[in-house]
Structure formats: structure tokens, C-alpha cells
């Protein structure tokens, strides 16, 4: 245990040394006997039925110890975990405040009724792949911020701008079957996010996209949306 002042005998021995900081930690052995447990070498110490009882009693009165034991209210590891969680939350909030954007290929938007999760992304892509005529992919600007997800079709082929508030976006993931979107002989990973249908409290729409820039992989986009935007506390 750590004490504020070393015992008098130690102070006498270390008068000439000056630095007594290494003497502030005192060591006490606990011995186990047939009568119970107690501090070794302390004849005035009683025997205790368990180690818990010994620690608890010494938190009330020091007995042979230099001072009472201080028992923490919670596990120090929990405090570290809470601090790490708070740090991660602060980092996520800062990332979201700055926002992130890249270009992706917009594929389709499919109504899902109340379906969400990986099943929604899987079903939406299945329906899209068998659609006749197949949808034409369009490069759009995909921006994620504290306000939500904003899509901008700079060439205005399908739309000008669509915005999905952060409160409406409920899921984002890669296609669970890892199917690819084929265009011009090149294949790209597909991902989608599920958002509430505008004006509805129960119906969802799954919006599908494919990678456009190799330096902006779908996995990174999904990770940012899922952990930073959806995973952040909503005010």
C-alpha cells in the first residue's frame, strides 16, 4: 500500500538520503492459517474468516496498517474503458463535423416496406440485377456530414440533389453476397443504405451504389456511415 509518510524508523535511516519517495510504498504479507487469514508479523492483528473480511475491516480501521484502506467505488479498468469510449465518441463527432465526401455510382432506389438491415441491401440488389431494362449507373457526389447524407448529380442525369437527414438513415452495408456491379468490363463492389421513406414512419427505401474511385472503397464509405454517422448520438 502507498502511504503519505514513511514509518519513523525509515525516516531515521534515510535522513541523509533526502529522497524518500521510493519508501512510500509499504509491503505487507497476508498469511493463511487454519484459524483464517491475517497480516503476517502483526501479533495484534485478529484472524479473519476470509480475505474479503480482512480488506473490509481495514477499510474501517487501520489496525496494524499505517492508514485505512481506500476501496474504489468501481473497477479502474471500467474507468479506462469509459474514457476510451468517450474519446472515440469525441473523435467520431469531430469527423462528422468535418464531413467526408467522394464520388460513387448511383444504381437504384428500391422500396422495402419495413425491411431493413443486410436483408434489405441483398433484396434491393437482387431486384436491381433482374430489372429490365437494367438501370443506368450515374456518378454522383456522396457527402456524409452531421446533417445526414447528401447526393448531388452534377450532370443532372437523374436528379439534381437529394438529402437524407441523419435521423432517417438507419442502416448501411456492403452487399452480403459480395456481388459486383459490372460496367465497361470492370467490376465494382456494391453497397447501400436504408432510409425512411419520406412522409412515412414505417416504410423504408434502400439506395444502392457501386464504387467509382479505387481510392474510395465501398468498405471505407460503409464504415464511415455506420460507425461515425449512424453510430453517433443523435441530438
Plain-language structure description:
Strands 3, 4, 5, 6, 7, 8, 9 and 10 form an eight-stranded antiparallel beta sheet that branches. This protein has a two-stranded antiparallel ribbon with strand order 1-2. The chain is 28% helix and 29% strand. The radius of gyration is 32 Å and the shape is elongated. It has helices at 8-13, 51-60, 76-98, 117-129, 218-230; strands spanning 30-33, 36-39, 100-113, 138-145, 148-152, 161-165, 169-174, 180-183, 186-196, 204-211. It is built from five helices and ten strands. It has two domains: 25-75, SHC Adaptor Protein; 99-230, PH-domain like, CATH 2.30.29.30. The mean pLDDT is 81. The chain has 235 residues and is of the alpha+beta class. InterPro entries: PH-like_dom_sf, PTB, PTB/PI_dom, SH2_dom_sf, Tensin_PTB, Tensin_PTEN_phosphatase. Its main location: other. Residues 97-234 form the PID domain. This is PID domain-containing protein.
Amino acid at each position: 500500500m502507498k502511504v503519505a509518510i514513511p514509518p519513523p524508523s525509515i525516516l531515521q535511516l534515510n535522513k541523509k538520503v533526502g529522497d524518500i519517495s521510493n519508501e512510500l510504498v509499504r509491503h505487507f504479507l497476508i498469511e493463511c492459517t487454519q484459524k483464517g487469514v491475517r497480516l503476517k508479523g502483526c501479533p495484534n492483528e485478529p484472524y479473519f474468516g476470509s480475505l474479503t473480511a480482512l480488506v473490509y475491516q481495514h477499510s474501517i480501521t487501520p489496525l496494524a496498517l499505517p492508514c485505512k484502506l481506500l476501496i474504489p467505488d468501481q473497477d479502474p479498468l471500467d474507468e479506462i474503458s469509459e474514457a476510451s469510449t468517450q474519446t472515440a465518441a469525441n473523435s467520431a463527432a469531430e469527423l462528422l463535423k468535418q464531413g467526408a465526401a467522394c464520388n460513387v455510382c448511383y444504381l437504384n432506389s428500391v422500396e422495402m416496406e419495413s425491411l431493413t438491415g443486410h436483408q434489405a441491401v441483398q433484396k434491393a440488389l437482387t431486384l436491381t440485377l433482374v430489372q429490365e431494362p437494367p438501370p443506368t449507373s450515374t456518378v454522383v457526389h456522396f457527402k456524409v456530414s452531421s446533417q445526414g447524407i447528401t447526393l448531388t448529380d452534377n450532370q443532372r442525369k437523374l436528379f439534381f440533389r437529394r438529402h437524407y437527414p441523419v435521423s432517417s438513415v438507419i442502416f448501411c452495408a456492403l452487399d452480403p453476397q459480395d456481388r459486383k456491379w459490372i460496367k465497361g468490363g470492370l467490376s465494382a463492389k456494391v453497397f447501400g443504405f436504408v432510409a425512411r421513406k419520406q412522409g412515412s414512419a414505417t416504410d423504408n427505401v434502400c439506395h444502392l451504389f457501386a464504387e467509382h474511385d479505387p481510392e474510395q472503397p465501398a468498405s471505407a464509405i460503409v464504415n464511415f456511415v455506420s460507425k461515425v454517422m449512424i453510430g453517433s448520438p443523435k441530438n
